[in-house]
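User: Okay, second chain of the day. Same drill as before: sequence in, structure tokens out.
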Amino acid sequence: MTLDRASGTLDVPLVVIRGAGDVGSAAAHALFEAEYAVVLQDEPRPSHARRGMSFTDAFYDGVATLAGRVGKRARDAADLPPMIRCRRAVAVTDIPIAHVLDLISPEVLVDARMRKRITPESQRGLAALVVGLGPNYEAGQNADLVVETGWGEDLGKVIRVGRSRELAGEPQLIAGHGRDRYVYSSCDGIFATTLRIGDRVHRGQEVARVGDAPLHAPLSGMLRGLTHAGAIVTVGAKVIEVDPRASAAQVYGLGDRPRRIAVGVVDAVDDWRRSGR
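Assistant: Same drill. Structure tokens below.
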């Protein structure tokens, strides 16, 4: 089954976004707000921790809301084209990316998987416009355009010639805490927890397990990030984040960095569209 544009029901470019973490979800939200048709694709049972700031829960629960917009999971391949035509929600799918591209032939592909230490394979030619997010992308080489994702004055800038910044390595400080507010999985396995995004925890409290390995809160505060129970995680995956600001913590909605990156993605697609593609 393919998406039939001849029906006239889809009169805007179709964008597929790879990666449903906070950055990919913010891009999907912004493009949907800009009235593009949007599909958000990821692997089954994704392990993104900032679920209150993304559409990740739709992969588990069928539906998720982010900043007033709904993401709805396609039950199967046959569901995807009518969901795209309907455009009442961001279409979310864990159908393999090759199948998605073959099924709906999007005009735009955005790679928001944010694979920080991996040089992305070239995806040019998979769509008329390929936009790369994150380190190790170079415009005209492994993507057509690149959007800067590193903190600084260039955050969200559209790069038409050249590379994105190298990985800086350290997260922004929140109330004096940087990398120490995160917990990473020590092994491969299935993530198990009874806690929820937004729950308060104290330092040393057991928050989750991967297999038989317990994971403890690194400091006291509010759970800003918590991988969904049942997620498939790999060693080194970021699975817990504690915001030490407690009642002042931001655990839901669009984060500042994802929002600014998303603005750059919309600018890139808008400019491409205005140029006549």
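The chain has two domains: 5-167+257-274, 179-244.

User: Thanks, on to the next one.
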